[in-house]
Amino acid sequence: MSVVKRLDNAWLALRRTLRPLPKIHAETLHSSDVALYAPPAQRESTSRLAFPGGPAFDLPAHLVSSLCTAEQLDSAAFRYWLGEIREVWRFHRKQWEFGYLMQALHERGCLATAKRGLGFAVGQEALPSYFAAQGCTIVATDLGATDSRAAGWAESGEWSSTVDVLNRRGLCDPTLFRERVTFRPVDMNSIPGDLTGFDFTWSSCSFEHCGSIELGMQFVLRQMDCLKPGGVAVHTTEFNLTSNTSTVTKGRTVLFRRADIEQLVHRLRAEGHAVEPLDLTIGTHPLDWFVDQRPYTADKHLRKRQGRYAATSIGLIIRKSLA
Known about the structure:
The protein is α/β, with parallel strands linked by helices and 323 residues long. It contains nine helices and 13 strands.
């Protein structure tokens, strides 16, 4: 039985019961045609993290490169960040991506006065305005208005060619927003050479849309040139939970396998960059094992079916070489 079918059956069986949902413990997957997942990363130390104008939480010392999990999304820190950008919290992997990006950048001191950030394929995200409100200077980028690929994203409300829409939630004072945030049309497959010297870069599930697995990898490698030495890159993308051999390798949305992510990490480290260790633990919450299908739900969407594969989000945290 395929992993996708097993996950679907497990969830259906749980829904038929009237008792509280028990936890489903992740099992190591042994088939050569199934991605193998590492045990949880060892995090022995914890730190007390204080948030601007908010409470402090006992958390692991720092995030690592990891898969979206219900436990992480349900944490006090992620709930805090989503409240900061006025998102209605729910079990949705896009919510996890925003929380992951904000927490990773906060831990590394990026969300502070005079820090410069570069966002790729920002669409209508609230992150540029929130980062500006923290004192950052932001260059927000997306496909240009004349690019034919922008039409599809505009229809789904995931594209914009103007800067004003990025502050539609009023997270930043309008005057400060205009001073600190600029918009620039940028194709992720052809990053302009003058975009350099940034303290941090980010993208939320975007580089899987570059056209192929290899083009997505080239984007991650190329965007490191935009950072100053020691700068931080945080990116999320699509991850294939079903197979470590077959996948969607070309097209509008590709799925990165474990082997692809490991190859990307190897290439980044070969260039001298530091990549946070991979924690590919699936999670133990029932929703970590539920594969959502079209029409997708708003609050049970940590994993989705894409063709014959089960997919989720993965986050990568990279620090540029000091050399």
